[in-house]
Fold this protein.
Amino acid sequence: MWTARPIARPDVAIFLADEQDASVDTDTLIDLARHVLTEQRVPEDMELSLLLVAPATIAELNEQHLHKVGPTDVLAFPIDEPGESEPVGPAILGDVVLCPQVAYDQAASFGRSPQDELRMLTVHGILHLLGMDHADETDEREMFGLTDRLLASFASSHHS
């Protein structure tokens, strides 16, 4: 199953491609991505792609780009940093590649529902596109703290 659709919002284009078989609430992921971009004050001309892929696909990307073997839950491929591009056309923030099956399989080990795990990984991937990292303990605390705050504000604004 493959779907790609731009989501109309006057100030940002979010594209979603679902190329895998696990059941995913794509509308909620798109709403969450929109929420994160708004809360992080990402410029209005930025575009974001969310790609939902099967374990074999993300394993291939993981090996090709990170030289790691096996499937992973999320990969982020930044393209333009906010404010970096010339204002001649839309800037592309980047791609967040998610593997719902890996997320669902690992959710219980983190004490989360499968849906909550996928939402957390979506926010995590977008924050990577915005330049955040968790290379050291301080950065990790900051990134995961912001992830938790964004998820909480999304949940309270969407009552989901």
Observations:
- Confidence is low (pLDDT under 50) at residues 1-10.
- Residues 137-158 form the longest helix (22 residues).
